[in-house]
Amino acid sequence: MNYEDFLMKHYDYPKSNVGNRYCNTMMQRREMTGPKCKQVNSFVHDTKAEIFAVCATKGVPYGNDLQRSLKLFRVTTCTLKGFKMRPPCDYKEMTLPRNIVISCMDGKPVHYEEGVAVVQEQESSE
């Protein structure tokens, strides 16, 4: 995957106003519903500059060739409902603030690591 693919699959800022069927609409618009339905995909709702910064100064190493963001990003994750892999695809939506985990090449994001859902823990005030 390259930077343009990353933007096509994972960048949506500001969050598109497509009604209450966000995931179904966006997954179809971004060509991830054919010939088979992509099971999981996340959209990051922040500026390109903030996402780029995770590759530079606002990220920390996380596993093999990955960077975890220091800040929380607003992210919508679309997950395929059921096990039907053929269109029409039907997705459920979950939007949460979370740290993103990406891989970078030449200072640009090229891969979003779907399998890592890092949610910042609240510090206890004792």
TrEMBL record:
Residues annotated as domain Ribonuclease A-domain? 2-116
Any one of the GO BP annotations: defense response to Gram-positive bacterium
- Pfam family of the protein (one): RnaseA
Q: Which CDD domains does its entry note?
A: RNase_A_canonical
InterPro entries from the UniProt entry = RNaseA, RNaseA-like_dom_sf, RNaseA_domain
- UniProt superkingdom: Eukaryota
Q: One GO molecular-function annotation for this sequence? A: nucleic acid binding
- What's this protein's family per the entry? Belongs to the pancreatic ribonuclease family.
Which named protein is this?
Ribonuclease-like
Organism listed in the record: Python bivittatus
